[in-house]
Amino acid sequence: MWARVLLHLCALSCGSYANYYSVVHLRMPVLSHQNEKAASLGGAQYLTSWNMCLQSLYFTICVLNDIAGSNEIAPKNPPLIRRIKDYMLCTVAFPVSMFVGLTFWGLYAIDRELVFPKALDPYFPSWLNHVMHTNIMIFIVLEMVLSFRKYPTRGNGTGGLTAFMCVYLVWTFIIYFYSGAWVYPVLEVLNWGQRAIFFIVLLLFVNSLYFVGEFVNKTIWGKELRQLERAGSHKRSN
């Protein structure tokens, strides 16, 4: 389907350019909640940047699958690239993108200083902000609509997502103990107990987005999924 291929190329181009611009051209000031050590890490400290790399990797795999893999509903022997693509979409690409976009704009609406201080406006282009926090949701929702996949078991799916988020959480603590500064200003105004609750709530929220993706997938591709289930039941009965 040409629309699917066009989406993959467009998403990959946008994500790749955003990553390039962030590394080569973006020069951020030291913010009030930071110090020189924290600022020296640049975008590597933010989940937004992790997600942009994740999205670029995912849509690279999509393009490779378009070229050398398979986009059939039920290929007899799914290529490895197709299996990786489907697993990544379900476990990290969809929930993490939606998490980044929803939490960013939600906190931005409450108090932008908690996530994107006004001091960044002269340094951080508005188009880059939308590529990193808005386009990611649009592209991944379109991908859900245009590409079929069967979700893994919930244990495998939520396990992969939780592992990814825990790795990032550990990274957040490494940065804090290395630099003495929290990645996000919102963490500065919380005590340790409140931070623990904050992290748990966010972990529950991102896992709830996994189930949202599963529901959306069933809603869009329900007919095809039922056909696969009947075919699988027929094979087992024989």
From TrEMBL:
Location of the protein in the cell: Endomembrane system
Domain of life, source organism: Eukaryota
One Gene Ontology CC term in the entry: endomembrane system
Bilayer disposition of the protein: Multi-pass membrane protein
Reactions this protein catalyses: 12-hexadecanoyloxy-octadecanoate + H2O = 12-hydroxyoctadecanoate + hexadecanoate + H(+); 13-(9Z-hexadecenoyloxy)-octadecanoate + H2O = 13-hydroxy-octadecanoate + (9Z)-hexadecenoate + H(+); 13-(9Z-octadecenoyloxy)-octadecanoate + H2O = 13-hydroxy-octadecanoate + (9Z)-octadecenoate + H(+); 12-(9Z-octadecenoyloxy)-octadecanoate + H2O = 12-hydroxyoctadecanoate + (9Z)-octadecenoate + H(+)
Residue runs in coiled coils: none
Keywords carried by this UniProt record: Membrane, Signal, Transmembrane, Transmembrane helix
InterPro entries in alphabetical order: ADTRP_AIG1
Annotated TM spans: 87-110, 130-148, 160-184, 196-216
Signal sequence bounds: 1-18
Pfam families the record matches: Far-17a_AIG1
Similarity section: Belongs to the AIG1 family.
Full protein name: Androgen-induced gene 1 protein-like
Species assigned in the record: Gryllus longicercus
